[in-house]
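Subject: design request, 313 residues
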């Protein structure tokens, strides 16, 4: 087994570190390695430093990966651990999402000190979230609520709730569970009512293409059903040219050798939306995601996508 120090790159938030520690633990168990065989390298990204504006205005998802990917490309780290939903549609040449850990709870968590669910909130109550998808879906379900931009890591968002900046917020159940903060969840919203972001709940590991030593190290911790689901979801996003400026949701579920997929695209104000569903063999994951996206593009029409783009600028 590998004799040199294995360097794992990650952002520095509590959640990012929890995901890096989970990856390290799985590698330790798989190979009988000690903790000192690894070094967790915290890399500050541009996205961590911009907290005063929505990501869509600052440059999109790549803000959370650029500096980490640069460290991976120049050899300062051996692998990078990411929240899959933060990953851009296209990766830099020479890098790949090579491994996925078993997916956690994909649902969104409704969190409030005043109300039990989104449905219980009175007209005019304030929901804070920085996600365009969540903003659009809240407005679709409850156009009578006020939605405000709400940046920061998990801890800061919870603090803002206590400070009264908003009456409720939405976070990923997966992240809260990985942090041991499941008790802050007021209620989990079922995916049939609130479709998750592409990649939500899945930890993705990025590595250099052709790095055989690292690929062999990572192989035992790879979870193929999660990988199939993510291949489908990311294909859907790629065809729709999804970015932080487009409210898109997508969720693929693998059951044995079958895969089912549901996708959704919305106007930012939630006033119009189009959805799609598809299914097939799990081995055809990419084709299912692409087919669903092309069908959705045809169903919604070019005018809808032009309107979404105009509304989000």
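Subject: RE: design request

Done. Sequence follows.
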């Amino acid at each position: 087994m590998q004799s040199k120090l294995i360097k794992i790159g990650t952002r520095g938030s509590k959640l990012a570190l929890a995901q890096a520690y989970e990856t390290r633990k799985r590698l330790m168990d798989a190979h009988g390695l000690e903790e000192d065989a690894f070094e967790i390298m915290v890399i500050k990204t541009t996205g961590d430093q911009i907290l005063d504006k929505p990501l869509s205005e600052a440059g999109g998802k790549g803000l959370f990966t650029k500096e980490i990917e640069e460290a991976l490309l120049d050899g300062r780290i051996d692998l990078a651990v990411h929240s899959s939903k933060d990953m851009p549609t296209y990766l830099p040449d020479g890098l790949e999402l090579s491994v996925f850990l078993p997916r956690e709870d994909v649902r969104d968590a409704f969190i409030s000190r005043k109300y039990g669910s989104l449905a219980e909130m009175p007209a005019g109550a304030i929901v804070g979230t920085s996600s365009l998808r969540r903003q659009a879906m809240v407005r679709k379900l409850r156009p009578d609520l006020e939605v405000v931009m709400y940046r920061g890591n998990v801890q800061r968002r919870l603090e803002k709730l206590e400070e009264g900046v908003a009456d409720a917020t939405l976070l990923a159940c997966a992240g809260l569970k990985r942090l041991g903060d499941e008790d802050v969840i007021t209620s989990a919203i079922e995916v049939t009512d609130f479709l998750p972001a592409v990649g939500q709940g899945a930890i993705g590991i990025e590595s250099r293409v052709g790095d055989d030593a690292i690929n062999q190290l990572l192989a035992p911790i790879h979870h193929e059903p999660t990988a199939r689901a993510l291949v489908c979801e990311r294909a859907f996003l790629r065809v729709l040219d999804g970015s932080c400026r487009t409210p898109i949701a997508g969720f693929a579920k693998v059951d044995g050798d079958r895969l089912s997929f549901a996708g959704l695209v919305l106007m930012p104000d939630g006033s119009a939306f189009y959805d799609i569903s598809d299914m097939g063999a799990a081995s055809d994951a990419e084709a299912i995601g692409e087919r669903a996206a092309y069908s959705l593009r045809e169903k919604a029409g070019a005018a809808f996508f032009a309107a979404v783009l105009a509304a989000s600028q």
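The chain has three domains: 1-101+202-222, 108-189, 223-313.
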